[in-house]
Amino acid sequence: MCFLILTNLNILKTSDIYIEQQLVCKFISGDKSAFEAIFHHTKGKMKGFLKKVVPIDEDPENVLQEVYVKLWENRQSINPNNHFETFLFSIAKNLVIDIMRKRLNKQKYLENLYIHIKGGQNNSLDTLAKIEYSELEQKIFDLIEKLPKKRQLIFKLNRLEGFTYKEIAKKLNISENTVDTQMRQALSFLRREMNIYFSILILLFINR
């Protein structure tokens, strides 16, 4: 049973969002029309929040849907006398944390995979791991080929062939500042495209 502590106008203020406590009680009891009303009241602010915190290559709409699925599944944990928005946004924050944790776990796995392969322990890797490494490396090479020709050449000379900025500048008859600028732009492009894989991106092209 849903017990209310009545306030003036019997309305719970949640920042700019107002949810009637009686509506929350109906939602807790499984009223789908109450759920729809809550969704329409809160989705705008929730969408704005998710756009700020969800990783760039993650679809905020998918996370938005998952937030409200979780809200429905956990509705009986809601205390209608507490701020409803606090409960709702705690679900969203936990989902974002889960997304980031999964990404970090995958990143750590790939880093360990790189260490194994570069350490000459290829034979100890299972087939799936070898395939994942191969796909990752191919993706990086594909992205490098998308760089402008001059930037691509500078990047390859530095990361693949081990030339210093000074040596590249002399070889191509350009300034070291130009080399530095081109490398920064190349790495910025790769960072955007690779996202969670970026931390091992440089490792893959050092001391090859």
From TrEMBL:
Cross-referenced Pfam families: Sigma70_r2, Sigma70_r4_2
Gene3D superfamilies, alphabetized: 1.10.1740.10, Winged helix-like DNA-binding domain superfamily/Winged helix DNA-binding domain
Start and end residues of each RNA polymerase sigma factor 70 region 4 type domain: 139-190
Keyword Transcription among UniProt keywords: yes
Alphabetical list of CDD domains matching this protein: Sigma70_r4
Highest rank taxon of the organism: Bacteria
GO MF assignments: DNA binding; sigma factor activity
Alphabetical UniProt keywords: Sigma factor, Transcription, Transcription regulation
Protein's GO biological process: DNA-templated transcription initiation
Family of the protein in this entry: Belongs to the sigma-70 factor family. ECF subfamily.
Protein known as: RNA polymerase sigma-70 factor
